[in-house]
From TrEMBL:
It comes from the Eukaryota. It comes from Hydnomerulius pinastri MD-312. This is Uncharacterized protein. InterPro entries: Nucleotide-diphossugar_trans.
Length: 682
């Protein structure tokens, strides 16, 4: 049966929809009126809010449904959480700066240049102003003294007098004039491009006067930071800006005034200010515009500086657990044994056996008598008792050493147990399980600035000369790169004697590059000797001229320094070396910096570059004829083919001096056999 559709009248619906105000009198309502949804939601939330307010007024419910009274007014409501559970407040900008500076590494060695302006009012006190920078420093490379051009002669005279009486252990001092700039602050900033280092310390005419010792220590040993750091800073860039007061934390500044230290590249490109007196605020604005935090510089904080610079047990044990710290207290070293700040130097000796330490005792005793602290670790034998022993030499010198034990079983454990971070670690170049960890251990904090010296066991009995070096000289042990340069032609017997003496030389663990320069006329026997040479101390480079040049270009073109730490020992083939010749050269290099001569001499990069420049001008005859006598009454004036003639001219014109070893009976570290050659005839 088919379904029939229900008949529904649509007229009333449509009429109501179209005319909502008209309603049929006989029709009842189709449905009951309803609350609107929006009204219901508002009422519901109102009820919930009123109920929550009433409940909160009397008590705070806990998760466990336990009820506690409401805290009295004036006491912070913590919802019954312990202090340890409260979220930490975000660190302030000052705290973030202090943390960043504390965690930043120190700048590299020889990477700081100091710029000091001299004006007429401060010339008389130049010696006092310059004194804090005439020091032996791993960081300081050069002190650049700048002065107005009319003051140049007097400044040079004052520096010459001052440096003649200064200790030989100090950084290079240079003097540069400035022209046209009336403001010495402008001249300081303009001198930054002369800096050859990554970091620059800018001073005013007063240097470090009225600067705290702690600030001086930081400025001469700064951290590698991307913003300037100094002692004096201002709050903003306006003309009425005030000086920031010193606080316990590092604090940001709109700009700094000298003294302050910054990256040399950061100080370049500062746009000129509208007035010379605004030079430092212009620098601060320039720095701030390159940073998201808009900091123009940072002022040193007193407490934070002490935390950074102190040389304490806390710094050594930073990051160690309580168990590790407790372990480091065993066997003789405790916090109360810590060396005082400013101790003259700490040496750590790590040898496998007692015999190695005995062979090195001549050095130990010399260093010990000069006040250096000596600690020794013998790791070749396990001693379960871990008892300190004494080693005595003939003169009654005593040094404490400790055996490897269950408590101190590794080189790292022993270093961590010392009362202070060592300045120098000395060990053998012999590779074993323990010595293989030397370098890895010293590549972590707090040992990043510790120098590692590795010596061959066979060289220990001949190392007494090392005891004459100062701490700073020993810390520079690994800096020089020495090349042995041999010049030869057609004297194979002489070359064989020289090469044999070189191979018998003690090099004290240094890698030595051997560079052999053969003339175009070298005979087959000479070439065979060079080809069969076996060299275990470094790389070998052989040069063979295709056009005969003679002795002068053979020597002058045999080597050229690639950096300021590059040195060369020039050897003609009629020279024979003593086994201790390298010891003398290394000691003189670390201590005296310059030993110019021609027979088995060590040449320094700055002087050899200078000699190249002088020789180019001299041979071009632009300055004066080649026949001109420069040094009167010198035998070498008759040596027309001698390079030494021109080197003596340079030494004479520059006022340089020569340093020679002086032993009884004319004993020396090299012997010239005066064989037939360019200067010796049959």
């Amino acid at each position: 049966m088919p379904l029939r559709k229900k008949s529904v009248s649509q007229a009333p619906y449509h009429s109501v929809a179209r005319s909502p105000n008209l309603r049929h009198t006989n029709l009842a309502p189709l449905r009951r009126p309803r609350w609107r949804p929006r009204t219901m939601v508002v009422l519901l939330f109102s009820v919930i809010y009123l109920f929550w307010q009433a409940t909160r007024t009397n008590r705070v419910p806990l998760i466990s449904d336990e009820v506690i009274p409401r805290q009295p007014q004036g006491i912070d409501e913590t919802l019954a959480l312990d202090d340890s559970e409260l979220p930490d407040a975000p660190p302030s900008l000052n705290e973030e700066l202090s943390a960043a500076i504390h965690d930043a590494p120190s700048v590299c060695k020889h990477s700081l240049t100091v710029i000091l302006p001299v004006i007429p009012e401060t010339l008389s006190v130049l010696e006092e102003t310059l004194a804090p920078f005439l020091i032996s420093s791993d960081v300081l490379y050069e002190v650049a003294v700048i002065c107005p051009d009319p003051l140049l002669l007097e400044t040079r005279r004052a520096l010459r007098s001052m440096l003649s009486m200064a200790p030989y252990e100090h950084s290079d001092v240079s003097v540069y004039p400035w022209y046209g700039l009336v403001n010495h602050h402008q001249a300081v900033l303009a001198a930054v491009p002369r800096s050859k280092t990554e970091w620059t310390l800018l001073l005013d005419e007063n240097g470090f006067q009225k600067i705290a010792e702690s600030d001086r220590a930081y400025l001469l040993n700064p951290r590698a930071l991307s913003f300037p750091v100094g002692s004096l800073g201002f709050t903003d860039l306006s003309s009425n800006s005030s000086l920031l007061p010193r606080t316990v934390q590092f604090q940001p500044a709109a700009y700094l005034i000298p003294p302050f230290v910054a990256q040399s590249s950061l100080l370049a490109g500062v746009p000129p200010p509208s007035h010379p007196s605004l030079i430092w605020s212009a620098l601060g604005e320039y720095v701030a515009q390159s940073r998201l935090d808009m900091i123009g510089g940072v002022v040193i904080g007193r407490t934070d500086l002490n935390r950074i610079s102190r040389h304490s047990r806390e710094a050594i044990s930073d990051g160690l657990s309580e168990d590790q710290l407790a372990k480091n207290e065993v066997d003789g070293y405790s916090d109360t044994d810590a060396l005082p700040i400013g101790a003259p130097g700490v040496f750590a000796l790590a040898f496998p056996h007692n015999e190695d330490l005995k062979n090195f005792m001549s050095v130990v005793c010399k260093l010990q008598r000069r006040g250096y602290a000596m600690f020794a670790f013998l790791y070749g034998t396990l001693d379960t008792d871990s008892i300190f022993s004494d080693v005595l030499d003939e003169s009654g010198c005593v040094v404490d050493y400790i055996w490897r034990s269950d408590d101190i079983s590794t080189f790292s454990d022993w270093l961590d147990s010392l009362p202070s971070v060592p300045d120098v670690v000395i060990g053998l170049d012999h590779q074993d399980f323990t010595s293989a960890t030397f370098l890895l251990t010293l590549e972590r904090r707090p040992y990043l600035n510790t120098t590692l010296i590795r010596l061959p066991r066979a060289d220990l009995p001949y190392s007494e000369w090392m005891g004459t070096l100062t701490l700073q000289e020993l810390r520079h042990w690994n800096v020089p790169e020495i090349t042995m340069t041999v010049i030869t032609n057609d004297r194979p017997q002489s070359l064989q004697r020289l090469l044999t003496s070189i191979q018998s030389t003690l090099f004290y663990g240094d890698r030595i590059t051997l560079r052999i320069n053969m003339e175009q006329t070298s005979d087959p026997e000479t070439m065979r000797l060079v080809e069969e040479l076996d060299w275990d101390h470094g790389d070998v480079f052989v040069h063979h001229r295709v056009i005969h040049g003679g002795l002068l270009p053979a020597v002058v073109e045999s080597w050229y320094p690639h950096c300021n730490d590059s040195y060369s020992l020039l050897l003609e083939d009629d020279i024979e070396l003593s086994p201790l010749s390298y010891a003398w050269a290394k000691m003189a290099l670390l201590r005296y910096r310059c030993i110019p001569c021609s027979w088995g001499a060590l040449y320094f990069p700055s002087h050899w570059r200078e000699f190249h420049d002088y020789l180019s001008i001299r041979l071009s005859q632009h300055a004066f004829p080649i026949s001109t006598t420069v040094v009167p009454g010198v035998r070498s004036n008759k040596w027309t083919k001698s390079w030494k003639k021109y080197f003596i001219e340079l030494v004479y014109l520059r006022g340089y001096v020569m340093l020679y070893a002086n032993y009884e009976d004319f004993v020396s570290f090299s012997t010239n056999h005066l064989e037939v050659g360019s200067h010796v005839r049959d």
